[in-house]
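stuck on this one:
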Amino acid sequence: MSGKRKRKRKLKSLSDTNTDSGRAATEAENENLELQTWSDLPTELLESILSRLSLDDNVRASVVCKSWHSVATAVCVVIPSPWLMYFPKFDDWYEFYDPVKRKTYSIELSELSGARVCYTKDGWLLLYRPRTHSVFFFNPFTQEIIKLPRFEMSYQIVAFSCAPTSSDCILFTVKHVSPTVVAISTCYPGATKWTTISYQNRLPFVSSIWNKLVFCNGLFYCLSLTGWLGVFDLSERTWNVLSVPPPKCPDNFFAKNWWKGKFMIEHEGDIIVIYTCSSENPIIFKLDKMLMEWEEMTTLDGVTLFASFLSSHSRTDLPGIMRNSVYFSKVRFYGKRCISFSLDDYRYYPRKQCHDWGEQDPFENIWVEPPKDFAGFT
């Protein structure tokens, strides 16, 4: 009996020892976990998290600790704002204004002599020489040129879908033959000629250099002088003037040159129109594609719009002071500041710097997008 009790005591003692050692190991593990900080997160996991943050949140995360700062800096992709490009009237020196750094660059581009700008997208300019009817793409940041078939353009505007280095690039222009008939011409890099087809309109549509063009999800949208919207479907090759009444503006907007002070922008599938009139605050509309009507916008939800006559652009994740604003194609105070309108403060900056856009030469300047890794002209 005594031998059995001794064996039981030994077994119990051994069991207690194992339990105590397991408890100690668990406590040590918990203590180690408690001692771990956010800086101990695996680098791969941290990269996956921080790469999904907005620019502001990325900056906030970078001040947590050294390891977070290193990863946040590595994964941060800052998309530069568009630059305002000025076209000279006499020589071949072109100026580029960076609204973020408020810095101006000058560069000689003799390749553009005698050409006027038509449109810009993805860092590429589309240009036209009236004397020779030559049309070509030019990238001012890489100096690349892509020639296109000759085409005579009078008072119509032209746009393209994406960078000409892409196989999806299509050029589009529309010209009215009569109030109820338009001639639509298309082309693509590598083509030997333009293709022109006439279409009937259900509603009157008049072409002009003051019309606006954007490309969105396979469709070219064209806003006419009087605010009617024509749509060309690339895949179906169809043209239709939508029965969407023009945006409603106050009576005081219908003053001298009111029809010239319009801008149109595509942003993440939305079609946005800006109406301006002299000293009045601009009014911004978005096309409701379900209800087929224009709805007025009171906020841009942090988006920054860059408006110029021939083409306009949008950006997210720019510095906070630039957000929820419209930047127009005019620089004041000797190149120190663009005229902008803040939807947060509902006012122009600088003060009393509104502009009669109808008086400005549409070919004077244009917003152009520099490459992500472009540091500036040397």
